[in-house]
Amino acid sequence: MSEDQSFDLAGCLQRVRTRDQIAARELVEHLYPLVIRIIRGHLPRRVLEQDIAQEVFLKMFTRMDQYQGAVPFSHWVSRIAITTCIDHLRAQKRRPEYRLADLSEQEADLLEATAVSANAIGPDDALASRELLFKLLDQLNPDDRMVIQLLDLDQNSIAEVSQLTGWNGSLVKVRAFRARRKLQKLFSELKKKEGT
Amino acid sequence: MNDTHTALNRLFSAARAARDTRTEAAPYGFASRVVTLARAVPHSLHASYENVSFKAMFFACSIAAVVLVVNTSSLVRLVSHDEPTTELVDLSLD
């Protein structure tokens, strides 16, 4: 969550509150990279990212009066983006179930390589690894998926996940424990299918 | 299960190395569209609230008019006849 140091966020927010349209546009342009990174990181590629980003910004403007300044504004917007992503994942009622045949050749090779050693996965496999991981995560429920992504993929701390999702620390830990177990089960099932 | 855990960790490490090369800048016109929509949303909320309020007021006035029409005869009778509504009864014993 890098901040553009030259951007006067406090001043911009003040102007937005006085219904300054130019300031509102500047705020959207300033926060767009942060919001789009969250959306791209947590929703499948097939989702129309601009529509979700628009939803996030509309929520931001309508809830602007609720922002008390207790946390940095970018954290507050991140939380809106995260909860919007969870809502969208919940709205997708169907959870896909992947078989080995659904994986690309590179993904199937990767699946095998993960069992051998870390060196067996080359730097060119990063994108395929991400795709394979997302296929596994797609099968989890939205809350489990979110907690795994925020903790294990984005490497946030429990406190950060708690702040981003609004779940308390204990809930994050319990949810992460259960989600990891489910993910391990899905992973070993996929590998078993590969073995047969 | 331990092997699965290790293999999954390797997959996570490899996935973290993936870099998204897509642009992160807002597309042309996006900010203007969002700001226009944001200005329209509270207006439409107010407008719908106003609409509901007017409907409620019309409904309440209609009920009041019906009640007035139904009870007109009773009201007219009450006003025109100077009937005592209560009668004094002498309850003294003598």
What's the short version?
The complex is a heterodimer of chains A (196) and B (94). With 196 residues, chain A is an all-alpha fold.
Task: Give a structural overview.
The complex is a heterodimer of chains A (196) and B (94). With 196 residues, chain A is mostly helical. Chain A is built from nine helices and no strands. In chain A, helix 3 packs across helix 4 (73-91). The radius of gyration of chain A is 19 Å and the shape is elongated. The model of chain A has no long low-confidence stretch (mean pLDDT 85). With 94 residues, chain B is mainly α. Helices cover 69% and strands 0% of the residues of chain B. Chain B is built from three helices and no strands. Chain B has helices at 2-16, 30-70, 72-80. The N and C termini of chain B lie far apart (106 Å). Classes of the chains: A mainly alpha (196), B mainly alpha (94). Chains A and B meet through helix 2, helix 3, helix 5, helix 6 and helix 9 of A and helix 1 and helix 2 of B.
Query: How does the helix and strand content of chain B classify structurally?
Result: mainly alpha
Class per helix and strand makeup of chain A: mainly alpha
Largest sheet of chain A: none
The helix-strand sequence of chain B is HHH
Instruction: Compute the separation of the termini of chain B in Å.
Output: 106 Å
Greatest interface by residues involved = A-B, 41 and 33 residues
Distance between the termini of chain A: 44 Å
The overall pLDDT of chain A, averaged over residues, is: 85
Helix content of chain B: 55-70%
- Estimated helix fraction of chain A: 55-70%
